[in-house]
Design a protein that fits this description.
- Helices cover about 0% and strands about 45% of the residues.
- With about 475 residues, the chain is mainly beta.
- The chain is built from one helix and 43 strands.
- The chain has a 22-stranded mixed beta sheet that branches. The protein has an eight-stranded antiparallel beta sheet with strand order 2-9-5-6-7-4-3-8, with no helix packed on it.
- It is elongated, with a radius of gyration of 31 Å.
- The protein folds into three domains: about 80 residues, Elongation Factor Tu (Ef-tu), domain 3; about 240 residues, Pectate Lyase C-like; about 120 residues, no CATH class.
């Protein structure tokens, strides 16, 4: 665990002689030979002349005959306009007295849990090469941080900027190629234009990402996950998703501009979205929770190999209004306080099937709409081994043909052996008529589902109910109460 420091302006040596950086070349020619040893392998160099977005380059080879240096090689092509300039030289160790000048010095050197890089605020770092980590830490360890900080006490409040210069080159397929336990805070990224299929400003990182700005950048994250706190996307140049690649995210706050009306927030495993006023499409790879957020369009991919049985969206509230809503492949469940069974619960579960809802055999049965706290159902405890009956009361509206027992049923899972953990599932065998009165409805059919079972030992009993039929405009209301006799 150590603190390191980054200052774009830091250098340990400089030349008065000029060197020519040629566009498209990795060879830097000394216009006047440099003294022997002036530039060494491992040094970082950049032109003093700042008219061409001076970027720090790592020296990988030096032509030094023991008396003078005639040229040296840098680690990747010089993509700016050809320039002849004196140079700065940095061989810092990351301490405050000898800071790094380039993110690469920190990222591509072995790091330890708890390391922090303090990046001086108010500076611009030019980059046309991928920076790839050399190490990572476990997610249960202290993390590795890159953080904007006015560590020089200059009074700057502007976050440091990493400018990728709109370079669509193979050296920059990804910007920062990180790993588990890497975190970034208070950095602005701009002008990332890679057309590589797995492009991303930040790639393969799992950590905490806070107060980041992505300006004129294609695809901020790919194959990443973790916590995203107060992120911003400004003036995106394409319809790339902000979050892509299938990892789990918690997203809190932030603001996002989009390239066009069809642009998406992401296709990945959002687990929690809070305080975010963005109504954009997301994917189907995991459960989602939306809290005080705009209601997004949840798109469920349905094709072989890309169906998640736990792809549910849970809404605690939508823009501050109580929602209590659950969405999934097969439909929507919502709390309804206006429709309720007389002498029943104080509310009902309103189930609206989607056109994917059916009794056909599908992978994971994703097309069955689970009516009770999907996907797990309800659980209660029995402390005896007597015979019991579980009953649920329903009101059906808008159906031309009512669901049959194969399309609407109740399941009870219980211990059926006196020892061990083996369980059996008992299923309802009919959809029975009922005489209950439902307030809030005028045209409905009252039904009930029942299962009788005898547990062989005390313990938890799980109850699930399913709808597997769709008609446009049709709904099922469930009395939101467990009845056990």
């Amino acid at each position: 665990m150590a603190d390191y420091y980054l200052d774009y302006d830091a250098y340990n040596d400089e030349t008065t002689e000029t060197c020519t950086f040629t566009n498209g070349s990795t060879t830097v020619t000394c216009d006047t030979p440099l003294p022997t040893g002036k530039v060494q392998v491992g040094d970082y160099v950049r032109p003093k002349d700042e008219t061409t977005a001076p970027e720090w380059y790592k020296v990988t080879a030096v032509t030094d005959d023991g008396t003078q240096i005639t040229d040296f090689t840098i680690d990747h092509k010089y993509y700016q306009d050809t320039i002849s300039s004196a140079i700065y030289i940095n061989r810092g160790d990351g301490t405050q007295s000898s800071p790094f000048c380039c993110l690469r010095q920190y990222i591509e050197t072995s790091r330890s849990a708890g390391d922090i890089l303090h990046v001086q605020k108010g500076q611009v770092h030019y980059c046309s090469k991928q920076y790839k980590k050399s190490s990572y830490v476990g997610l249960n360890d202290d993390y590795i941080w890159i953080e904007g900080d006015d560590w020089k006490s200059e009074g700057s409040t502007e976050n440091p900027t990493v400018d990728f210069q709109n370079a669509d080159v193979s050296d920059l397929n990804q910007g920062l190629y990180l790993d588990k336990g890497w975190c970034i805070k208070g950095i602005k990224f701009r002008n990332y234009a890679s057309s590589y299929y797995a492009r991303a400003v930040v790639y393969d990182a799992q950590g905490i990402f806070e107060d980041l700005v992505f300006e004129n950048c294609r695809r901020p994250f790919y194959n990443c996950g973790g916590e995203a706190i107060n992120l911003q996307q400004v003036n995106p140049p394409s319809s790339d998703r902000v979050f892509d690649g299938g990892k789990v995210w918690k997203i809190t706050g932030g603001s996002f501009e989009f390239y066009d009306a069809g642009s998406e927030l992401g296709l990945c495993s959002f687990s929690w979205v809070e305080n975010l006023d963005v109504s954009r499409q997301i994917g189907n790879l995991a459960p989602y929770v939306f809290r005080n957020s705009a209601e997004p369009y949840v798109f469920w991919y349905i094709y072989p190999g890309n169906i998640n049985p736990f792809a549910y969206a849970y809404y605690e509230d939508i823009n501050g209004a109580v929602a209590h809503k659950i969405k999934c492949h097969a439909g929507v469940l919502a709390r309804n306080t206006d429709v309720k069974r007389e002498n029943g619960a104080s509310d009902s579960i309103e189930a609206t099937p989607s056109n994917l809802c059916s009794a056909a055999r599908r992978l994971f049965n994703f097309n069955h709409l689970s009516l009770l706290n999907p996907p797990w159902g309800w659980v209660f405890y029995l402390n005896d081994t007597s015979q019991h009956t579980v009953t649920f009361y329903l009101a059906l509206t808008g159906w031309t043909t009512l669901p049959t027992v194969d399309e609407l049923w109740l399941e009870v899972e219980y211990y059926d052996q006196s020892t061990g953990t083996h369980k059996a599932v008992a299923k309802s065998t009919s959809v029975d008529d009922d005489t209950s009165t439902w307030n809030g409805l005028t045209d409905y059919t009252a039904k009930k589902l029942s299962v009788t079972f005898t547990p062989a030992q005390t313990g938890l009993v799980r109850v699930r109910a399913y709808l597997a039929k769709y008609e446009s405009g049709a709904k099922v209301y469930v009395d939101n109460k467990l009845y056990v006799s």
